[in-house]
Amino acid sequence: MIIGLTPLCAQPVAPDANLQGCLRGQISCDLSRLSSQELGLVSAAARKRNLEKCQLGSPGCDPLLLKKEEQDSFQRQIRVRNAQKCVDGGAGCNPLLLTKTEMETALAAAARRNLDSCLAGGAKCDPLRLTTGDWDRVKAAARTRNREACAQAAMACNPLELTREEMERVQAEAKRRNQENCMSGRATCQPLELEAGPAAAVAAETRKRNHQRCLTGVSTCDPLLLTAPESAAVAEAYRARERAKVRKN
Fold this sequence. Notes:
61% helix; single chain; disordered N terminus; elongated
């Protein structure tokens, strides 16, 4: 006698499990196994899920499934979200949905964003949208940025836009910066731009650094810069290092 076995994968879903799946909108839901009362529950659950999607602005929202009062609320939310997008300058802004007041608010926000961009020298600045007062502020901000760029020797500096007094301050700052670089022995030092007093101070500091390098046996020592007493001190330091090596061995 052979007993037929139903494969595990073919076993029917329990009624309660099927109902729960339908209530959650799962693909495994079998509507044909539901009673009339259960179908009503599933329909109500589907409408609730759809309403939540519409309230969140989800693309899965189906406005045709909404009731009259829900449809009105949904349309209000669409207008509110659209108005905020327009105020924020969002790509999804639809100006046709704006009221007159909302349009004025959105235009004012756009003008503020444009002014901020122009004041910062941003690429999105549209000077044609500036008022006369805003244009004066933007020009003043541009002069300030240029003056700061020139003071820092930045590539964005345009010396032609500097006043005579600003040019003098920038040149004084450039001299101070160059002297500091030379005193520190930096590669950016421009010795030909030094005046007599600073040049003498830089030369003395250079000899001092060279003397110290020679005393410690650094390969960048330049013996030609040493005075006679310094050469004697360097020679003695060299002999002391050699004697120390011998004692160590």
